[in-house]
Write a structure and sequence with these properties.
The protein is of the alpha+beta class and 314 residues long. The protein contains 7 helices and 23 strands. It is 19% helix and 34% strand. The strands form 6 sheets. Strands 16, 18, 19, 20, 22 and 23 form a 6-stranded mixed beta sheet that branches.
């Protein structure tokens, strides 16, 4: 074989190998959509533009676990770590799966950290520190992960921090720059709702699974009462779909007359599985007239307040 033929054959093999290398990468572009051979799913518009505009999307989102599909309330697409959805204004957003999965009683709370290596926005209830802070800032911050909704916690002996859209995990035995990873919340949620053999999600997912809004009502047992009597306040909390919300932290201030500076305060309580909290308190003032009750409910990153009242009579 001549030298020229050997060079041509080598060049042909090189081109073929380069082509095969391209088709085995994470995605393939075709007609305005991306194919992921690892999971055999496509990302199409409008999710495609959002995906391509997100830095390190392949790492942050992971592979798609479904194609886009229509639920009873919107269009969604699941990835390993997140779910994308179309909101009521037609924009693509990251679903708050971190908020959905987080339960106050899930993890063992780690000791709070006070360090210059932490950041805490005035709108946050919790700081982000050390490696978690570096990861948060590097891969999109609040625009991608949302606000922190917990401090540091241990879940199954892994140190984690929960965010509105994600959960960070710390694995100190991993190589440097790989010690922080994302919990596969998209895969976890998809496994919970189930998937049939045709690779289409079962129609059991509805929007009431995510609490986006609190509606609070307070009803007293006695609309008219006397000093030193026991008043009973029933607080009901429902979400945007009128479903009861459990574990809402309820705070109550009782304002007698115009004494706004020193209201009577009750101990905080949590709503039960029926979205109900019962609060008993003594009536402390003997002045005649209306008594205002300010009720504040906190649920993760949502705060809502309402008012009730009763009257003191002779």
């Amino acid at each position: 074989m001549s030298l020229m033929k050997m060079i041509k054959r080598f060049a042909l093999l090189l081109i073929i190998s380069m082509f095969l290398g391209l088709v085995t990468t994470a995605t393939l572009a075709q007609s305005g959509k991306l194919y992921f051979p690892e999971s055999d799913h496509w990302v199409e518009e409008p999710f495609l533009s959002f995906y391509q505009a997100t830095p390190d999307a392949e790492f942050v989102f992971g592979n798609p676990n479904t194609n886009a599909y229509q639920t009873s309330w919107t269009t969604v697409q699941y990835f390993e770590n997140v779910r994308l959805e179309i909101d009521t204004s037609g924009d693509v957003i990251i679903s708050p799966l971190g908020d959905l999965f987080y339960e106050i009683s899930d993890g063992v709370k780690a000791a709070p950290i006070y360090s210059s290596n932490c950041e805490k926005d005035e709108q946050w209830n919790h700081p982000i520190c050390f490696s978690f802070l570096d990861f948060y800032l590097q891969f999109g911050g609040e625009n991608i992960f949302g606000k922190p909704i917990s401090g540091l916690e241990y879940i199954d002996d892994v140190l984690v921090q929960n965010f509105l859209n994600a959960r960070f995990e710390w694995h100190p035995n991993q190589p440097e720059f790989q010690t922080v990873s994302l919990t596969s919340l998209g895969m976890m949620f998809l496994n919970e709702i189930g998937e049939n053999e045709d690779n289409n999600t079962l129609p059991v997912e509805t929007s009431f699974e995510i609490v986006e809004e609190l509606n609070i009502w307070g009803i007293v047992s006695n609309i008219v009462t006397l000093k030193d009597e026991i008043q009973i306040l029933s607080v009901y909390v429902r979400d945007q779909n009128n479903n009861p919300v459990e574990n809402v932290n309820i705070f109550v201030n009782i304002i007698y007359g115009k004494n706004l500076e020193y209201p009577q305060q009750t101990l905080p309580v949590f709503t039960d599985a029926n979205g109900l909290a019962i609060i008993e308190f003594p009536v402390l003032d003997d002045s005649v007239g209306e008594v205002q009750i300010v009720i504040v409910g906190n649920y993760k990153v949502i705060t809502k307040s309402t008012r009730s009242s009763f009257f003191i009579w002779y």
